[in-house]
Amino acid sequence: MVEASAPGKIILFGEHAVVYGRPAIAVPLSQLRATAVIQPNPQSGVQLIAPDLGMSASLQEAVPDDPLAAAIHQIQRAANIAQWPDMIVTVSSQIPIASGLGSGAAITAAILRALAQYLDLPYLLTDEQISALTYEVEKIHHGTPSGIDNTVVAYERPVYFVRRQPQNLIEPFAVGTLLRLLVADTGVSSSTKLVVGDVRRQWEADPSQFEALFSTCGEIAVAARQAIERGDLPEIGQLMTRNHQVLQTMTVSSLELDRLVQAAQQAGALGAKLSGAGWGGNMIALVTMETETAVRQALLQAGARHVLLTTLI
Ligand code: PMV
């Protein structure tokens, strides 16, 4: 039996603009993980079991765009596998789905890692390979993913990311001081594909306005990386709040997200913004040890379903 896992993620700066080649920053959310377990199947065939997704099917029965089956097909292509051993692939995840925390990418990366171990394919086990294969699966579900989700989930480190040809720029970087982030869930699920599609329509209708908005997000991400490296908490917070304002102009925020962002600010957070595609999902607030409790309470009072603390160093 083998077991492998991958973390969730949060986008600290630059969502959406990253699809259009601007820099963005994402960090792993290591306390929320997706896990894949592979064991021999006493019966013949490959069985896929995912209790959290309400799924139990054989590989042949799975619909073509099933995310579990898609991960298995990626390994099959990459390693030229003609015949699968009889095995049971069980996937579980603590990461809420459709909420901007990278659940899809984490589930895929966990399955890929577990399969590569089970089949003894060490050359597929590098972070780079896992990220590249996860990206292929992300494309099925998200249309035009930037590649930031699969990167941070596979590398499990804070990354400064720029989508570009022929190769993305991926720079892991140091965090200068402890960052305390509260991650609050609106409880509203949202489809990344729909939000990304809506931004594309707006960009097509008014390219100069949207190019300018994306560039502002890119400048914020560059400044944020420097502020994070030197540990300048007030500056990081201000940049988060500015990034949220630009995302509001792009119309990817929502009443629930804005309410949580405002509640966090009023309760003393250094900054707050939505995280991920928007229209629902999660927001993040930068707090200190002193403000953490007040901000958490304010978020819950303003309607957050869950609030969790993550720290980065
Ligand atoms: O998967 P989500 O909801 O965290 O959104 C990903 C971030 C986007 O920038 C909106 C899309 C992308 O592919 O980078």
Descriptive report:
With 313 residues, the protein is an alpha+beta fold. The chain is 42% helix and 25% strand. The chain folds into 2 domains: 2-172, 2-Layer Sandwich (Ribosomal Protein S5, domain 2); 179-312, GHMP kinase, C-terminal domain (Alpha-Beta Plaits), CATH 3.30.70. The protein has helices at 67-79, 103-118, 127-142, 148-155, 192-205, 207-230, 233-249, 255-266, 292-301, and strands spanning 2-13, 24-40, 46-50, 55-58, 87-93, 159-162, 169-172, 179-185, 271-275, 282-287, 307-312. The strands form 2 sheets. Strands 1, 2, 3, 4, 5, 6 and 7 form a 7-stranded mixed sheet that branches. A hairpin with a 4-residue loop joins strand 3 and strand 4 (55-58). The longest helix is centred in the C-terminal third of the chain and has 24 residues, at 207-230. Bound molecules: (3R)-3-hydroxy-3-methyl-5-(phosphonooxy)pentanoic acid (PMV). (3R)-3-hydroxy-3-methyl-5-(phosphonooxy)pentanoic acid binds next to helix 4 and helix 5.
